[in-house]
Amino acid sequence: MLSVDKAVERITDALKPLGSERVNLEDAFGRTLAADARARFDQPPCSVSAMDGYAVRSADQGPRRLIGAAPAGHPFTGKVGANETVRLFTGSQVPDGADAVLAQEDARVGDDRVEFTAQPYPGKFIRAKGQDFLAGQMLIPQGTCLGARDVALLAAGDLAQVDVQQRPVVVLAATGDELSLPGAPRKPGGIVASSAYGLMPLIAQWGARPRNLGILPDRSEAIAALAEEKCDLLVTLGGASVGDHDLVRSALGSKGFALDFWKIAMRPGKPMIFGRLGAIPLLGLPGNPVSTLVCALLFLRPAIFKMLGREWSQPLKPAKLIGTLDASGERQDYLRAKGELRDGIIWARALAVQDSSLLRDFSVADMLIVRPPRAPALREGDAVKIMELE
Amino acid sequence: MLSVDKAVERITDALKPLGSERVNLEDAFGRTLAADARARFDQPPCSVSAMDGYAVRSADQGPRRLIGAAPAGHPFTGKVGANETVRLFTGSQVPDGADAVLAQEDARVGDDRVEFTAQPYPGKFIRAKGQDFLAGQMLIPQGTCLGARDVALLAAGDLAQVDVQQRPVVVLAATGDELSLPGAPRKPGGIVASSAYGLMPLIAQWGARPRNLGILPDRSEAIAALAEEKCDLLVTLGGASVGDHDLVRSALGSKGFALDFWKIAMRPGKPMIFGRLGAIPLLGLPGNPVSTLVCALLFLRPAIFKMLGREWSQPLKPAKLIGTLDASGERQDYLRAKGELRDGIIWARALAVQDSSLLRDFSVADMLIVRPPRAPALREGDAVKIMELE
């Protein structure tokens, strides 16, 4: 059995980043930058007022003569001379001659005369040209998955479009004659295929484009037909074990399926296939919904990140244990758990039952306690590693 | 000046949840349940095998006669009698008469005879009917924003559709003659309107439907025309201050605008309007992009949550301070900061410059340090509250 870390390495080594495409900034959120994004101009483009107030020369004293007003977007075209002032607003260009702004709260305004109750100094309440960034400066580096603030920053840098990584197309197919779709007639003793419903939004959130083929019957032909799909990654759900009816491996054999590995030292989720079907990488996730989703977090997420050119590391955090845990076996355990904060430290309690078919428990968990193989027994307060679930 | 907490209260008190609508499960991710979701059948629907193996009677001893096989989805229709066994697979219905499953790894199979190297006990490797959930049981309560695991659970409960809260329509409009759109010709001394590009994805992520009107000129008529928009919440960006050219309040006065408040004791973000334009609530966010986005987190997010019927509390966490902070003034400060984990504790360092026009600094921050008004000076290691940024 392969370790989790080795399996991730084998999967990501077998994949490479896709090409790039240009998108409008409106569509850039959640996309991964394919090249460093650089500002197209200085921000601010000139000295601007940080306040509603008055442009003054800091060397002057006493009342000033009001010679004009410059709303933001309507610069004052003259020059501020000795003992003169111009009305400004937040974001207004500071006119020539002035080197400070006094706030309107500190001004008493007569007809064309303004007295101030505060003293200026050079640069007071002025945002200097280029204070936020300069033309040509890198705003966001290649490989960044763009968040909301990033997109706002790119807009501020005057970028109407950006080059982002193409999104890998991920095709999902569940296998199993016991499966039906929600609301459809159920099979005798059968269950509803649920994993794909959880996977679709996760795959989209991770930056790929999911396409769900639904349920394939447990017949070689149906499964072998996957070889014809146009996609960057095939993901099968179920059928990855060694039972006589776990058909994914055998069905794909005839289509030039090159198996890399199929057994991982982890729980939940031991049976998992990775290989290549002609040119298409194939990840065969286990069928129990909890195993499916945990394996997706551990293996599908880094696979997608690799195709997007994004950095990846398993997001483990330190925590302390509530309750006790027995010594563990040969597999790396991912225990569904609930956490709480005590004095800024995360404390985690494993759920009592860890069967990989219990989706309801999984839904209320907020983290996984990650235990390496052959971990010793643990007591209340011992250190553990956790992976938070969104 | 109103406190942040009071302002949130005034805003959310003025709003109420919208109605519900029915959506397909494929479209349920990120939506808020409008009613408790209950399972439509027992899961599993019958006793099923947890392993690839053999159904046996636990009272029997010695080798068993193999009388059939039952792949998942193809139940065995007979009954397991004394010293008989039936081949099962993970998820197969356990046939009548059997009360345990032995794993295939512990079986030696002859022609129609199976010897076992492990002992059964009643219930061994059997997932009992209804072990995950029972028909009629509540799976997920009303008001839950559905995550990926929730959607999978609803699928497992055989729900093809669910009742969710309608998404509030939020209309955005930036004001300011100094503004241009990314890539468009820039105004003299002007800047690019950036906030809406950050707000659009946030509003969608929070569960609402954003519509961006772009930039309105600083003229009363243009702003007053907002009164004709069909939406659940109007959000203006900029123009919320008291300057002669901050027109939102004055322009809307003629259209029956009822002002609730417009000044909040916070930094960044003091000038903020809330009121009602006829039947439509209006939130006037400040124009500097950092202020806009921080105010959106603090006020727009709970406003949307209220219209979705979702619980809300400011997500503050304890942390320790890196560096020092001076005593603070009359306003609640939201300091852009970078954090790191040390021994499981979050440590936060405020960025050196906190000017609300610096979008680049905001983009690299990963949290805000939240300081109440008139907070004392703090030293390295002192306790602070933080709000993580996504």
Topology:
The structure is a homodimer.
Chain A: H1 4-13, E1 20-24, E2 37-38, E3 48-49, E4 53-56, E5 64-70, E6 84-88, E7 100-103, E8 107-109, E9 113-116, E10 126-127, E11 138-140, H2 148-156, E12 161-165, E13 169-175, E14 179-180, E15 191-192, H3 195-205, E16 209-216, H4 220-224, E17 233-237, H5 248-253, E18 257-263, E19 266-267, E20 271-277, E21 280-285, H6 289-308, E22 316-322, E23 332-342, E24 345-350, H7 359-364, E25 367-371, E26 383-388
Parallel strand pairs in A: 5-6, 13-16, 13-17, 14-15, 17-21, 19-23, 22-24
Antiparallel strand pairs in A: 1-12, 2-11, 3-10, 4-6, 4-7, 5-9, 8-9, 18-20, 20-21, 22-26, 23-24, 23-25, 25-26
Helix pairs in contact in A: 1-6, 3-6
Shape by Cα distribution of chain A: elongated
The fraction of residues in strands of chain A falls at 25-35%
The total tally of domains of chain A equals 4
Kindly, what is the distance between the CA atoms of the first and last residues of chain A, rounded to a whole number of angstroms? 29 Å
Broad CATH class of the largest domain in chain A: Alpha Beta
Just name the CATH architecture of the largest domain in chain A: 3-Layer(aba) Sandwich
Average pLDDT, all residues of chain A: 92
What are the segments of chain A in which pLDDT stays under 50 over at least 5 consecutive residues? none
**Largest interface here, residues on each chain?**
A-B, 102 and 102 residues
Radius of gyration of chain A: 30 Å
Quaternary state, please? Answer: homodimer
Q: In the CATH hierarchy, what is the superfamily of the largest domain in chain A? A: MoaB/Mog-like domain
The CATH topology of the largest domain in chain A: Molybdenum Cofactor Biosythetic Enzyme, Chain A
What is the helical fraction of chain A, as a range of percent? 10-25%
Number of helices of chain A: 7
Physical arrangement of strands within the biggest beta sheet of chain A: 7-4-6-5-9-8
Class inferred from helices and paired strands of chain A? alpha/beta
Please tally the β strands of chain A and state the result: 26
Q: Which sheet architecture does the biggest sheet of chain A show?
A: 6 strands, mixed
